[in-house]
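Table S7 (text form). Paired inputs.
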Amino acid sequence: MSKSFDLRRARPWEVALTVFALSAPLVLPLAATGQSGFIREAIAQEMQQVDSSKLVAIGGAVTEIVYALGEGGRLVARDSTSTFPEEALQLPDVGYMRQLSPEGVIAVNPTAILAVEGSGPPDALAVLKSAGIPFETVPEGYDRAAILKKIDVVGKFLGVPDKAKELETTVAADLDAAIADAAGRPESERKRVLFILSFQNGRVMAAGGHTAADGIIGLAGAVNATEGTFEGYKPLTDEAIIKARPDVVMVMTRPGAGSSDEEILAHPAISVTPAAASKAILRMNSLHLLGFGPRTASAIRDLNKELYGNVSQ
């Protein structure tokens, strides 16, 4: 028994196709002459077409990829983490990726939205998705494969898969070279790095596993000092900091980041670590280092150089 067709639950293209079939019975012979595949392909192509001529990009890596694909002219707005390339700063800013206002995004009248996974809050995304604007989530991740996947998803959404393949090839080769250079360092020489996300009132919020910080530290030939103890970002006790034995304390350079090197090194637990003994505080640009986009190979080389004084080829 064939399944009944419920018009109330049908997608717009299904309704249109049904009306067309009923009003034009002469199309049926096409199926008998081997043309049904052509019809299915035409329908599939039509369904996949998205008007991305007025695009909002949420997430620094997403915006970078759009420009790297040569499609920056489509952008009508970006979020506050999208600061590269420089021309992106000329676009309207719809706010921080995790604190979006749906009204602010809709106000720029976009025809499509690309947002990196983790954007939010969830209720804001729900409003945007219900507004009828094509919305694509770009999966997040902190390794080579994740970067290439981002490029692939963005390229397909914009309808430029060939450009995406070319960019993937270029980025993959650059990543492979940077990763191979860093990986050549003997395990015994790898420094332990404590990544501090925030340092307020003596409380240390540090990076554990499955974070962008953990990913970039490993790719640069170092060891996350909290390795194997927890995932995500969490406050550390003094005992946990001492046990981590960091050789280097890394903090991000960003507006409003208040604590000085002296304040960090004077922390009771940090003060007894190897990092304090050598006064090894490393400050780096967070958006470049943790973006995991087309420039990640450069970030790997920069961090490797800061940690070991090497210049990757």
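Next pair, protein 2 of 2.
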Amino acid sequence: MGKVWELDFYSRPILDENKKKQWEVLICETQTDSQGSLEDGFRYAQFCPPKTVNSMWLREAIETAMEKTGEAPSKVRFFRRQMNNMIVKACEDAGLVATPSRRTYTLNHWLKQRQQDFYPSQEGYNEAAATNASVAYPALDAIALPDAVRGDRSDKWTFVSLEASAFEEMKEWDLRFGEGFPLALADLSPDTKIPGFIIYSQRALPLAAWMSGLELVALKFKSKPLPILSLETGLSDSWILANLTDQSGVAEGKGFEDTKNKAEGVHFLAIQPRPDVETFSGFWLLKDD
């Protein structure tokens, strides 16, 4: 997969001479190295006058960004549902694929920086017009995985944990599918326990391939109406990854959530064909949004 961009196009807390909010497009490159910096990679910012907020202006800004970096991204992630139509059309007109996603960690970090340091220093800044850096949507009820990737009785799973230091060489791991992000996002000490969930399946590769087409966000233990481990994807989708049908499973699910909270929401999902192999069919670093 080529480079992935994260994009936001929305009003900012800066008023023009007519007391109208200035709009701005922000584009940055997704950072996937667990030991990397959220400051790395391509970034592009451009203000947009309120009167010219439309998909045509946004397409031209996207094309300018592509000219500056010299290449087109494989896809563009965005998190603002209310801007869906405009962003999707602008990207399509520029020959790009736009994907709604909560995996916009680099962009959210940059937005928070600008809210704290950049916008307040600009002429026309209006604190009362400040907006949150991210927008959360309630997850839908969890549904079963598609039949094509649903496991059988031979499948196994287990809750595990790794110290944060174990991810120092993640980019060297043998992964068929997966994605990380800089752990600097959570500012964890090397000995912090990061919880995870490993699936062992004879259909590991098809399962990992299917999941790679989703925008994986987080794993969550839910006790009601029945105890499950859910996989949250996209902006609000939810899948039943495991039914925790006994007291032991419920206890493990609660322990997973407790460890995740201590790790600032950081956790992982792994898929392997068997416990005795060193390669991963799939491995994703995740974070509660």
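The chain has a mean pLDDT of 91.
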